[in-house]
Design goal:
alpha/beta, globular, binds iron/sulfur cluster
């Protein structure tokens, strides 16, 4: 344990998890993808040897769980090698996949290489619903096939459902599907409005009535499925009373490594102006975790202002999400407007109610090179 340089009384524990975004390439184009608008291209991705060193450094630092994510990590031809290297240094490995481009044979090879767990994203429960979001024809049958393969191979798997106004009313069917396919866990995650989700917020925002119904279904499912299916859930911030303890606190338990080696405390932290994020090519993970300015910027409680500074919940939710405060208020050190104690909370709720009851605009789908187009559209709208 180390004392943080910002004078906070808390000590710094080692990170529990590392999210390795192996690539931003993906066969899907989900309009809520949390990847940045400026996606990293293939030629800037870390090589096998770089990732292997990162995993060894992570294990040495005290990381226990490695989440192999993307984009679609199966697009990396060296995925089996990476899993084997991670397993060799003692990391518990979880593969986060869309299942498009990953078949049963390759999953068996990954299991043999040391993979412990797989998380499969289901954009919806119908072929049309999955295609509306992911734009990959035939994707649902591939997801179902991979889920069955995971069960056959004895790999525990989680069904990840990202929920929004177009599929929230089918939450019962998501639960049934998880049970039918033998999932160990389901994640019912309402869209978080970062990255592409922020661009598409008005097209995705559910109504309060949808959310109230979701809560009732959730409460019943948690009661009735106890012992059969583990249920995790995320409520949309815009309708919350208190914010989520984002990433369990800034620089407190997770590190995220982007495909080009940039290390952040959260996958959305690139939206915060003025922070420079270190890269694994320049510094060891240990130095990044304990000493970098970026990881210490919002660590502990020393950076907080009122109302967080004197709030009894400050050690529970850590003032909410810094990225959301930066995006909505232009001030990363402000109280997350998702909190009812923020002076900006009411405006956030009104915005959600306004957007969710208006007809949904068309999606802006996630794709490489789209940032320039988005900027051009902004300038056109502003009459520039
Ligand atoms: S959210 Fe969709 S587009 Fe983004 S990485 Fe996952 S599957 Fe690909
Ligand atoms: S005031 Fe700050 S610490 Fe208190 S509940 Fe709101 S966000 Fe959390």
């Amino acid at each position: 344990m180390t004392q943080p340089p910002n004078g906070s009384p808390e000590s710094i524990e080692p990170p529990m998890g590392l999210l390795a975004e192996l690539t931003h390439r993906c066969p899907l184009q989900c309009p809520y993808c949390s990847n940045p608008l400026e996606l990293v291209r293939r030629e800037r991705e870390l090589e096998t040897a770089d990732w292997s060193r990162v995993f060894a450094e992570a294990a040495e630092l005290g990381v226990l769980q490695l989440h192999l994510s993307g984009g679609e990590p199966a697009l990396r031809p060296d995925l089996e090698t990476l899993v084997a290297r991670a397993a060799a240094v003692g990391l518990y490995t979880n593969l986060i996949t869309s299942a498009v481009g990953l078949d049963a044979d390759r999953l068996a090879r990954l299991r043999d290489a040391g993979l412990h767990h797989v998380q499969i994203s289901f954009q919806d429960v119908t072929p049309e619903g999955v295609e509306l979001i992911g734009r990959a024809p035939g994707a649902l049958s591939k997801k179902i096939a991979l889920a069955r393969a995971a069960v056959e191979l004895g790999l525990p798997w989680t069904l990840n459902a990202v929920l929004h106004r177009h599929n929230l009313d089918r939450v019962e069917r998501f639960l049934e599907l998880a049970l039918e396919l033998g999932a160990h866990r389901i994640e019912l995650a309402n869209v978080q409005y970062y990255g592409w989700g922020f661009v598409n917020r008005a097209a995705l925002m559910p109504t309060r009535a949808q959310l109230d119904r979701f809560r009732a279904v959730l409460e019943r499912a948690v009661r009735e499925l106890r012992g059969r299916l583990a249920i995790d859930y995320v409520i949309p911030d815009y309708y919350a009373r208190y914010p989520k303890p984002c990433m369990s606190g800034w620089g407190r338990s997770v590190m995220v490594v982007a495909p080009d080696g940039t290390v952040m405390p959260c996958h959305a932290a690139w939206v915060i102006p003025g922070l420079t994020f270190p890269r694994v090519q320049e510094q060891p993970l240990r130095a990044i975790w304990y000493e970098s300015a970026a990881f210490n910027a919002f660590r502990g409680t020393g950076w907080m202002r009122e109302p967080c500074r004197s709030c009894p919940r400050r050690e529970e939710d850590f003032g909410g999400c810094r990225c959301q405060a930066a995006m909505l208020l232009g001030d990363a050190a402000a109280t997350d407007p998702a909190c009812a104690l923020s002076p900006h909370h009411e405006a956030m709720v009104q915005l959600a109610e306004r957007e969710s009851t208006a007809p949904p605009p068309p999606f802006t789908y996630r794709r490489m090179g789209a940032r320039t187009t988005l900027r051009q559209r902004e300038l056109a709208a502003a009459g520039a």
